[in-house]
From TrEMBL:
It comes from Paenibacillus taihuensis. SUPFAM superfamilies: alpha/beta-Hydrolases. Pfam families: Abhydrolase_1 (PF00561). Residues 30-279 form the AB hydrolase-1 domain. GO terms for molecular function: catalytic activity. GO terms for cellular component: membrane. PANTHER family: HYDROLASE, PUTATIVE (AFU_ORTHOLOGUE AFUA_2G14860)-RELATED (PTHR43798:SF33), MONOACYLGLYCEROL LIPASE (PTHR43798). This is Pimeloyl-ACP methyl ester carboxylesterase.
Amino acid sequence: MTTTNINFQEHRIDRGQGSIYVRDYAGTEPAFVLMHGYPDNLHIYDDLVPHLAAGGRRVVVFDFLGFGDSDKPAGAKYSFEQQLGDLHAVVQSLNLNKIIPVGHDSSGPAAINYAIEYPQHVDSVCLLNAFYMESPTAKYPEFIELFATTSLKALTQAILRSPEQFAWVLGFQRSKFQEHLTDEQKDYYSKFLGPIIDANFRQQPSSGPAFAQMTSQHFDELARNTKRINQMWQINVPVKLIWGETDPYLNYGIARHLSTLLKKPELHVLQAGHWLQVDIPDQVAEVMLARK
């Protein structure tokens, strides 16, 4: 079951620097608004969307500016604040009243900060193996650590200019993410997820500039959000933390830590890796659709 079998409306929403690409699947609200992470794009949800749509819910999925099918203008400035703005632009342009922002990986900040800054638009929040703030058990992929270390900018820029070197780094990181997956999950990773990530960087214009700018702000964003603990506690809606327990980086400890800082946490741990929406989309959808 894939999104190719489901009708959706396409939108392009102007963001000043360029437009972002949006897919809107009809259903009842509150809408799930699905957001992707650093190395990928909206296609990481291709197997999850059909399960959510089958539950009768409206689903909106989009590419952040600089990624996927959204514009990648030369000289654009990318930031976590810009991604928060992308989310708000989607909500306004599609006249969404209440949403469930769903953050995976580096879109965790957009999901939580949207609930802090626009509580009138948020029914609940959902995080899938995401980060938000400094956490005692956090370990970040070597690929991200490399590009997030600003003193190594000359090296990382050289890697970005060399398709061969960049491919090698991507290959190394791919093997690390797959270490704890089942054989079936590894096979699907290679057939489905790997090509999504590769295309994000190899197709021109590339997502490389957006990736480089976003990762360079990684540790500063963690520090900024760590200072928002009191505001996190004011989030008065349920926050579902749905975690793949075999993720070697954004591990279960991050979810446990976040759950202690939220007023209404719901913690769910599943047998999957970092991209749990790819590994076990049916189980992830079941948790997302459940209402207390």
